[in-house]
Write a structure and sequence with these properties.
The complex is a heterodimer of chains A (350) and B (217). Chain A has 13 helices and 14 strands. Chain A is α/β, with parallel strands linked by helices. Chain A folds into two domains: 2-234, Rossmann fold (3-Layer(aba) Sandwich), CATH 3.40.50; 246-349, ACT domain (Alpha-Beta Plaits). A six-stranded mixed beta sheet of chain A has the order 6-7-8-3-9-10, with helices on both faces. In chain A, strands 2-1-4-5 form a four-stranded antiparallel beta sheet, with helices on one face. Chain A is elongated and about 80 Å long. Chain B has 217 residues and is mainly α. Chain B is elongated. Chain B has helices spanning 3-41, 50-65, 68-74, 76-83, 89-113, 117-125, 130-161, 172-182, 186-214. Chain B has one domain (3-214): MetI-like fold (Orthogonal Bundle). Classes of the chains: A alpha/beta (350), B mainly alpha (217). The A-B interface holds A 52, 54, 77-82, 84, 86, 88, 90, 92-97, 105-106, 108-110, 137-139, 157, 163 and B 116, 118-119, 121-129, 132, 136-137, 140-141, 143, 214, 216-217.
């Protein structure tokens, strides 16, 4: 549905030109929710604005619905943009228009009749649950309600694509969840293709089918959301996962462990992914192998509805038992990492 | 207060109303589009054209820096061309309008600048033409600011219109100068000032009320 081919975007800055996008290519399939995550300044905002050419790429081409938007005349581009709805971080609603008239705006621009507009806007307000607010002005609405108006407005021209530019970044976590649920719901109902950019891991893990991680204008990793975040290859991706589940040992714990003498205990970090992630493996280890396990730190979350977590345990027992435990974990397809080295390095430094 | 004085004040008020009303109206007719052009052609505007913007800005600044009394005399040939005479109320309206246009253009420009750029971007993303952006987004969103600007313009024009006496334009200010100042009639001067205060007060509070009604921020 969307295909970006080797996009490069250079901005003329005070100290020479700045490359906001460097050789970015990606494909988004019909009906997919594609997330782009990155820290601020990574280029994700420029990327999403290249999809409807609010920002024109310096090099490369943008294809939406099989058409090369970069080759269109400005009149044709305006028509093509009706197939691409967009919602914004700060909603960008017209303060002088009521909720109804805000949603009606794209239809007015297209020259629809008053009756046609009414027939289109009312079901949309119903869809986003704002029928009773039709005559209110944006200033009278909460942030979540404003974004609902934004969504209804973006859907008014029956677009095939919905672009979400940090659409939940100005909202509190609870409202964020409601808006994400609404977006997902709309995607399921209308088979929309959704591209969303965010700096929040929570947003991506909630609704993105696939994800691209951006840094310094480049896509450093992309793929299925679950795969990208359970097997992060890049340090930045890892840090996003850490935001979510705390990969690394908390500083206080690390300090305490460093202070302990190296003994016959082992520090393991177990990654819970895959089909056996929700089995009681820790209980089985201690019961069946008689291993002494002390859970130090852990967190289980869900990415795309699949459990994913990390647990740091201190295991005490003889070598044979430890080996048996490791092979048991391997048989359950759970990755185990020895953390003893990390602590030992710290210990040496102290 | 003699009935003669009352009749005089009424005539003056009427002439002032005519001068200020017409010059304000025609000024807005030209000033608002100029303000829009200033915004559109500005750096980063949707129809960016730096040279048009710069030339227009220069002309507007030049017009605004000319003292009104000089402007009035300087454009007498033009005034005669437009209204056929260089004296009287009609003749005063021409320079008042010329003075109002750049004033309004700048105030409108300022009001339009207050419209968040995100709104223009949103309209752009919907496939709006530049004209649609102006009519459907920029002007309605800036309307309270534009009305506030026009109110300031009207009050300033009331002040300017006092100088219209120099070309026989009449109006309250002219009465104040001729009767009150030149003929040493302090009670006429006082009455003129009083009427002007009430008049300006009325215009300002009407403008304020309109702004409040229009603003939904």
């Amino acid at each position: 549905m969307i295909e970006l081919r080797t996009l490069t975007k250079r901005f003329a800055g005070a100290s020479g030109s700045v490359e906001a996008l460097r050789d970015v290519s990606l494909t988004v399939a019909q009906g997919e929710i594609f997330g782009v995550i990155g820290r601020s300044g990574a280029g994700k905002s420029t990327l999403i604005r290249c999809i409807n050419l609010l920002e024109r790429p310096t090099e490369g081409s943008v294809h939406v619905g099989g058409r090369d938007l970069t080759a269109l005349s400005s009149a044709d581009l305006r028509v093509a943009r009706r197939d691409i709805g967009m919602i914004f971080q700060h909603f960008n609603l017209l303060s002088s228009r009521t909720v109804f008239d805000n949603v009606a705006l794209p239809l007015e621009l297209r020259g629809e009749s008053r009756a046609a507009i009414k027939a289109k806007v009312e079901p949309l307000l119903d869809l986003v649950g704002l029928t009773d607010k039709a005559d209110k002005y944006p200033a009278q609405l909460s942030g979540g309600q404003k974004q609902r108006v934004g969504i209804a407005r973006a859907l008014a021209t029956d677009p095939k694509v919905l672009l979400c530019d940090e659409a939940t970044s100005a909202l509190d976590p609870e409202t964020t969840e409601q808006i994400l649920k609404l977006i997902k719901d709309i995607r399921d109902r209308l088979n929309l293709t959704v591209v969303l950019i965010t700096h929040e891991m929570a947003v991506v893990k909630e609704i993105a089918d696939r994800v691209a991680v951006m840094e310094q204008g480049r896509i450093i990793e992309q793929g299925e959301t679950f795969e990208v975040f359970t097997q992060p290859k890049h340090a930045t991706t890892r840090s996003f996962v850490a935001d979510l589940i705390g990969f690394d040992l908390p500083p206080a714990l690390q300090k305490r462990l460093s202070a302990q003498p190296a003994g016959n205990s082992h520090l393991w970090r177990i990654l819970f992914t895959g089909p056996h992630a929700d089995e009681p493996v820790i209980a089985e280890l201690s019961r069946n192998l008689g291993l002494d396990l002390n859970i130090l730190h852990g967190r289980i979350d869900e990415i795309q509805g699949r459990p994913f977590g990390v647990m740091v345990v201190q295991a005490r027992g003889d070598e044979a038992k430890l080996l048996a435990a490791k092979s048991y974990l391997a048989s359950r397809q759970l990755a185990v990492e020895e953390l003893e080295d990390v602590v030992a390095i710290d210990r040496a430094a102290v | 207060m003699s009935s003669q004085l009352i009749a005089l004040l009424f005539d003056g008020l009427w002439e002032t109303l005519v001068m200020v009303g017409i010059s304000g109206g025609v000024g807005a007719l030209f000033g608002i589009p100029l303000g829009v052009i200033l915004i559109l052609t500005d750096r980063g505007g949707i129809l960016q054209n730096v040279s048009v913007n710069r030339v227009l800005g220069l002309v507007i600044n030049a017009a605004r820096s000319t003292p009104f009394i000089i402007l009035m005399v300087a454009i007498i040939p033009f005034t005669r061309l437009v209204v056929g005479t260089s004296i009287g109320t009609a003749a005063a309206i021409v320079p008042l309008t010329i003075a109002a246009i750049p004033f309004i253009a700048r105030l409108v420009e300022t009001a339009l600048r207050e419209v968040p750029s995100g709104l223009i971007e949103a309209a752009d993303a919907m496939g709006a033409t530049p004209l649609q952006i102006v009519i459907k987004v920029l002007l309605p969103e800036a309307l309270p600011g534009i009305v506030a600007g026009l109110t300031i313009t009207l009050v300033s024009l009331i002040g300017y219109s006092a100088m219209a006496g120099a070309v026989g334009g009449g109006g309250l200010g002219d009465i104040g100068i001729r009767y009150g100042y030149q003929r040493f009639l302090p009670e006429v001067m006082g009455a003129v000032v009083l009427v002007l205060i009430v008049f300006v007060q009325g215009v300002q509070s009407l403008g304020d009320r309109l702004v409040r009604k229009l603003s939904h921020r």
